[in-house]
Structure formats: C-alpha cells, structure tokens
C-alpha cells in the first residue's frame, strides 16, 4: 500500500470521527453510524488494556533480568534499572491521564 491510500484512509477516519462528535454534541443520535461507533469504542478499550499489559510486562521482564541473569548483571544493571523506572513512569503517566477521565 502506498502512502497516498494510507493518507486517504487517515483522512476518512478523521472526517468520520469529527462528524460523529458533531452528531453526538448536537444530539442527532438517529444519524450516528452506531455499528462503527461501537466497534471504535471496543477497539479503544482493547488498545488501552493492551498498553497497560505491555508496560507491566516490560517492568516484570526487566526485574527478572535484573534478578536472574547473573552473567549479564554487571554489564546491564544500570540499563535494566533505568528501563524499569522508565516503564513505571510511562505506566503511571498513562494510568493517571486515562483514569482522570472517569
């Protein structure tokens, strides 16, 4: 797929989102594309769950590396520790930002 069709698709998605928001704000519920709206909301929930799971997995993976990979610990310890802090910060930021909407 070339970049032009990708841009066209992104433009169409953006236009659909803007139109859906407009319809919701104007309470024109009967004109909503409910099937696609439901699908988008389900995908959004799945993406958020995946992001949290991925960050938690990275934190755990790096703790395990730090604790059990003895032959590499001296060389990689500082890197693994910085990765743990980075993933924890990303997770905290993501959860704080997303949970503040509820």
How is this fold's topology laid out?
Layout: H1 3-25, H2 34-68, H3 70-99
Mean pLDDT across all residues, rounded? Answer: 86
Shape: elongated
Assign the structural class, choosing from mainly alpha, mainly beta, alpha/beta, alpha+beta, or little secondary structure.
mainly alpha
Please estimate the helix content.
over 70%
Organism: Rippkaea orientalis (strain PCC 8801 / RF-1) (Cyanothece sp. (strain PCC 8801))
Protein name: DUF29 domain-containing protein
3D architecture notes:
This protein is mainly α and 102 residues long. It has two domains: 1-32; 34-102. The chain has three helices and no strands. It has helices at 3-25, 34-68, 70-99. The longest helix has 35 residues, at 34-68. The relative contact order is 0.07. InterPro entries: DUF29. This is DUF29 domain-containing protein. It holds the Pfam family DUF29.
């Amino acid at each position: 797929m070339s970049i032009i069709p990708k841009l066209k698709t992104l433009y169409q998605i953006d236009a659909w989102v803007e139109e859906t928001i407009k319809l919701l704000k104007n309470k024109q519920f009967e004109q909503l594309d409910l099937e696609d709206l439901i699908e988008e909301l389900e995908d959004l929930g799945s993406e958020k769950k995946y992001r949290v799971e991925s960050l938690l997995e990275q934190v755990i993976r790096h703790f395990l590396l730090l604790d059990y990979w003895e032959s590499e610990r001296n060389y990689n310890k500082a890197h693994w520790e910085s990765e743990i802090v980075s993933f924890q910060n990303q997770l905290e930021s993501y959860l704080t930002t997303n949970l503040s909407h509820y």
